[in-house]
């Protein structure tokens, strides 16, 4: 926990920096905020609110990413024990990565990594 | 007080400029862009980023309304200047620096409420889009009832929804999935966008489902002043390169265009530099990769780029054997449908449509660029 | 055995990063002028960061109709704060502000905050173009993140530690860039991508009128762009302890070496930005997954075998 204290201090400083900038801007700005501006898409008003369910065409990539990313979480602690455990741990880890890569290659061949 | 004025003066010495011009103002606009670049003032991307709005020429009623709307969204410190003649550019821009640095003037100029003054008076847009939606939904009438229910919110004053806007409605995408669809008029105030052009698009995510392009303040068949072929082609090249995120070569292309338009005599030198630029674009391996293979739709952009270079070169060399192709609006619409946003911007910049004179033959448009 | 700087270092950190950022902004303006054929002198360029900051400080803020002001504010602040927190594990010389045991994981975690931050800023504005920009960044994240993590892991395997100071200590003889060049290149590219910088600036591109930042003005824009610059500086500075030997080097003191190397990495990224057009994420995704991920895995395997061959250490 003692290690974390300086990081928390940095967090505090960061938050203070943002607050200071905002306070400074409140004093320095030539005018109070401009409210209720319509979003810009070229000058003409949009017909609907832009916040909508976005057509995320790359959701398959998201799935593949999630599978891979979970694995990466195991790989961080693995780096610490790889020498103690010896070649067996290397075979296990990279065998697993090879399996995942096979999945990526399959997804690629299915066109999951292209969406335009 | 003095400190605040000093801060303001320091802040606005290098203002970000938004240049807005209607159809047919391209020559004067090029002069303005040249002067802005000479001063090393950045070109703003959007009203939020703008300090100075430069209105080029005398905008018609439709563009005039758009400019009022855009101006409302520009945060203080801000200044606005209209330029109708080349000689007004330098004094006009000088004057904006004075206005920007004047604290009292800025306090008076600053807006408080960003609701648009001309919003009620844009029936043409709404009408257009209503027709759109009807034609778009005729083939799958399942949601028609709900469609109409919400449809009327934004026509009837729209006080019950914040900002007077409705929420997005569902519509089918190309795979038959029901997804939110937004109706957005793109342009005329966008970076690297042809003067006076508006494309009403239906967007799902960043994919364009439907597009209809039109020019503001132009009667059908009306003759409009156009740039000479070489300058026109170079403008288009500069826009495509800038949209591709290659701002250095884009700026150089603009510089070449300015010399073609306003420079005296040294066309040989210009031609050499044009060739050097063309070689550089050719040599880039990333550019074809991001613009797409020659088979895909974005390959069309690459071909258009090549064609613009040839056209500019031919016009410069004096040989009139190369006739630049032009794109009419229906052809542009067809090409935009199904494109995602970034690709659509490139397509518009490469097509660089201009209002067609009434007598132009409408047959030469297919496979234009 | 913690070798962290005294707590005063934490107060010093933002100032140091901002100073480097100032230099980087100026260098970028000079590079941009050169690329455009309209040179900007160094004296003008050095004044630029201050001028732009003041411009945004005196600028009026604006709020879009029915926008989510709170989310947008959180997004902007998170970008800046996360960049600072990521920099907390950077050795300034040989000692960092916070010498965390899992320092590499910490850096990774802080940098991923940018995903949420940029998306929140894009979403909160209730604007079509900023929404597109925000989603572009998420898609870009899916593309750059894995090679980035493999690069971090490769360095960790090389040092058999997740502590950044241990990674530096392991490079006393040989810089890691020599045995893991692929990981270094992947790290450099992902550093640019996470700060949506250079060829990866589609989330704030001109084609979407500024993208995620399209509706930001005044101090909102200042916080957002400062956060972005700090993230760029922090991530390029991280390349120094991971691959370039940290503070190790002849003649100069450790802090000077860190500074020189950081500026060199930033210089490379600035040159990259002005030479290469924007690579859109749908292109980068395919390249990243099909080329960079296998390449960085192979790199990790090679380094693992080297480490095993030496019997550890």
Automatic annotation (TrEMBL), chain A:
- Entry's EC annotation: 7.1.1.-
Provide the transmembrane region boundaries.
Answer: 56-78, 90-108
Which top class of enzyme applies to this chain?
A: translocase
Instruction: Provide the coiled-coil residue spans.
Output: none
User: InterPro entries annotated for this entry?
Assistant: NADH_UbQ/plastoQ_OxRdtase_su3, NDAH_ubi_oxred_su3_sf
Query: What keywords would UniProt list here?
Result: Membrane, NAD, Quinone, Transmembrane, Transmembrane helix, Transport
What's the catalysed reaction?
A: a quinone + NADH + 5 H(+)(in) = a quinol + NAD(+) + 4 H(+)(out)
Places the protein is found: Cell membrane; Membrane
> Does the entry feature the keyword Transit peptide, yes or no?
no
Q: Topology in the membrane?
A: Multi-pass membrane protein
- The organism's superkingdom is given as Bacteria
What protein family is recorded? Belongs to the complex I subunit 3 family.
Tell me, what does this protein do in biology?
NDH-1 shuttles electrons from NADH, via FMN and iron-sulfur (Fe-S) centers, to quinones in the respiratory chain.
Protein name stated in the entry? NADH-quinone oxidoreductase subunit
What is the originating organism of this protein? Actinomycetospora lemnae
UniProtKB/TrEMBL annotation, chain B:
Q: Where is the composition biased (Basic and acidic residues)?
A: 131-150
Highest taxon of source: Bacteria
- Region annotation (Disordered) maps to 108-164
Protein's UniProt name: Uncharacterized protein
Species whose genome carries this gene: Actinomycetospora lemnae
From TrEMBL, chain C:
Q: Which InterPro entries match?
A: NADH_UbQ_OxRdtase_su1/FPO
Compartmental location: Cell membrane; Membrane
Write down the membrane topology: Multi-pass membrane protein
Coiled-coil intervals, chain numbering: none
Keyword list (alphabetical) reads:
Membrane, NAD, Signal, Transmembrane, Transmembrane helix
Give the signal peptide range: 1-26
TM segment ranges: 70-92, 112-135, 142-162, 174-197, 229-248, 254-272, 284-308
The family database entries (Pfam families) matched by this protein are listed as: NADHdh (PF00146)
Similarity-based family: Belongs to the complex I subunit 1 family.
Q: What is this protein called?
A: NADH-quinone oxidoreductase subunit H
């Amino acid at each position: 926990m003692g290690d974390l204290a300086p990081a928390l201090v940095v967090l505090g400083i960061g938050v203070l920096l943002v607050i200071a900038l905002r306070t400074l801007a409140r004093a320095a700005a030539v005018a109070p905020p401009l409210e209720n501006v319509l979003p810009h898409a070229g000058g003409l008003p949009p017909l609907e609110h832009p916040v909508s369910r976005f057509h995320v065409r790359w959701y398959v990539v998201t799935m593949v990413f999630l599978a891979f990313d979970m694995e990466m979480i195991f790989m961080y602690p693995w780096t610490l024990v790889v020498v103690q455990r010896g070649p067996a741990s290397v075979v296990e880890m990279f065998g697993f990565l090879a399996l995942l890569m096979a999945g990526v290659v399959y997804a690629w061949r299915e066109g999951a990594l292209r969406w335009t | 007080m003095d400190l605040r004025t000093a801060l303001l003066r320091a802040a606005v010495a290098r203002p970000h400029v938004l240049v807005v011009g209607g159809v047919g103002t391209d020559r004067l606009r090029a002069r303005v862009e040249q002067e802005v670049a000479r001063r090393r003032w950045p070109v703003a991307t959007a009203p939020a980023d703008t300090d100075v709005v430069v209105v080029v020429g005398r905008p018609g009623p439709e563009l005039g309304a758009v400019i009022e709307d855009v101006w409302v969204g520009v945060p203080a410190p801000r200044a606005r200047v209209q330029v109708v003649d080349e000689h007004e550019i330098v004094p006009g821009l000088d004057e904006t620096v004075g206005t920007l640095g004047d604290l009292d003037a800025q306090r008076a100029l600053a807006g408080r409420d960003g609701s648009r003054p001309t919003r009620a008076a844009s029936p043409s847009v709404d009408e257009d889009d209503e027709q759109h939606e009807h034609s778009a939904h005729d083939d799958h009438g399942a949601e028609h009832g709900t469609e109409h229910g919400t449809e009327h919110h934004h026509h009837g004053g729209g006080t019950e929804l914040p900002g007077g806007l409705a929420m997005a409605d569902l519509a089918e995408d190309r795979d038959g999935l029901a997804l939110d669809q937004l109706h957005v008029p793109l342009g005329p105030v966008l970076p690297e966008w042809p003067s006076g052009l508006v494309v009403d698009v239906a967007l799902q995510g960043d994919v364009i489902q439907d597009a209809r392009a039109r020019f503001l303040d132009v009667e059908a068949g009306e003759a409009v002043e156009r740039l000479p072929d070489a300058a026109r082609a170079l403008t288009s090249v500069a826009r495509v390169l800038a949209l591709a995120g290659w701002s250095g070569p884009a700026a150089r292309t603009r510089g070449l265009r300015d010399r073609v338009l306003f420079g005296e005599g040294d066309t040989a030198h210009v031609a050499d530099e044009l060739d050097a630029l063309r070689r550089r674009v050719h040599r880039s391996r990333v550019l074809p990769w991001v613009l797409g293979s020659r088979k895909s739709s974005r390959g069309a952009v690459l071909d258009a780029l090549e064609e613009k270079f040839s056209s500019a070169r031919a016009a410069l060399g004096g040989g009139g054997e190369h006739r630049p192709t032009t794109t009419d609006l229906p052809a542009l619409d067809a090409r935009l449908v199904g494109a995602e946003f970034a690709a659509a911007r490139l397509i518009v910049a490469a097509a660089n449509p201009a209002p067609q004179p009434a007598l132009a033959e409408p047959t030469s448009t297919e496979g234009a660029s | 055995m913690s070798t962290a700087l005294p707590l005063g270092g934490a107060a010093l950190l933002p100032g140091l990063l901002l100073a480097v950022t100032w230099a980087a902004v100026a260098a970028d303006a000079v590079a941009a002028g050169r690329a455009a054929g309209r040179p900007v002198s160094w004296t003008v360029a050095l004044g630029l960061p201050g001028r732009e900051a003041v411009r945004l400080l005196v600028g009026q803020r604006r709020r879009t109709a029915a926008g989510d002001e709170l989310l947008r504010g959180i997004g902007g602040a998170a970008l800046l704060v996360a960049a600072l927190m990521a920099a907390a594990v950077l050795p300034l010389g040989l000692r960092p502000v916070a010498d965390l045991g899992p320092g590499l994981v910490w850096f990774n975690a802080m940098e991923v905050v940018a995903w949420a931050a940029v998306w929140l800023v894009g979403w909160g504005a209730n604007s079509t173009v900023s929404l597109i920009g925000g989603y572009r960044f998420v898609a870009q994240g899916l593309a750059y993140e894995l090679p980035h993590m493999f690069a971090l892991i490769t360095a960790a395997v090389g040092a058999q530690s997740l502590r950044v100071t241990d990674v530096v200590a392991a490079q006393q003889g040989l810089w890691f860039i020599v045995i893991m060049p692929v990981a270094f290149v992947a790290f450099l590219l992902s550093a640019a991508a996470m700060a949506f910088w250079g060829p990866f600036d589609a989330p704030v591109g001109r084609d979407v009128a500024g993208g995620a930042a399209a509706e930001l003005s005044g101090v909102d824009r200042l916080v957002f762009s400062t956060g972005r610059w700090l993230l760029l500086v922090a991530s390029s500075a991280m390349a120094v302890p991971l691959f370039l030997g940290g503070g190790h080097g002849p003649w100069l003191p450790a802090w000077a070496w860190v500074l020189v190397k950081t500026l060199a990495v930033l210089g490379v990224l600035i040159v990259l930005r002005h030479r290469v057009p924007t690579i859109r994420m749908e292109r980068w995704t395919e390249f990243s997954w099909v080329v960079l991920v296998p390449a960085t895995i192979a790199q990790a395997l090679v380094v693992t075998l080297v480490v095993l061959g030496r019997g550890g250490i």
